[in-house]
Design goal:
The protein has about 110 residues and is of the alpha+beta class. It contains three helices and four strands; from the N terminus they run αβααβββ. Strands 1-3-4-2 form a four-stranded antiparallel β-sheet, covered by helices on one side. Helix 2 packs antiparallel against helix 3. The longest helix is centred in the middle third of the chain and has 18 residues. The termini are far apart.
């Protein structure tokens, strides 16, 4: 199959975009949201090679509990949906590569 040079560049740009977190929805204050995204990136960089989503979610939950107070919940994985009730100003939904992350305070 013939592949143009432009499509190769587009594929490289797409792969670069997958290495950055894509915040789907956040109602957190910007400083809190930035800190939460940093926590997520740090834990996923540690666990993504082994695909240990449970370990990543526990690490994220514990870090958020220490930084912002108790009762945080975290879900990490591929291909999940959600319908939750949470406190206002404490919800973060993002993608890091092909992995979805949901963090909220219950």
């Amino acid at each position: 199959m013939f592949q143009s040079k432009d499509s190769k560049i587009d594929e490289e740009e797409f792969q670069k975009c997958l290495k950055k977190p894509l915040v789907q929805y956040s109602d957190m204050p910007s400083e809190m949201g930035n800190e939460a995204v940093e926590v997520v990136i740090m834990s996923l960089d540690k666990f993504v090679a082994s695909r240990d989503w449970e370990g990543a979610s526990v690490m994220i939950k514990n870090a958020l509990d220490k930084k912002f107070g108790p009762s945080w919940q975290c879900a990490v994985g591929e291909g999940f949906g959600f319908d939750i009730a949470c406190q206002q100003k404490y919800l973060l939904h993002l993608y890091y590569g092909k992995v979805g992350i949901l963090c909220y305070k219950a």
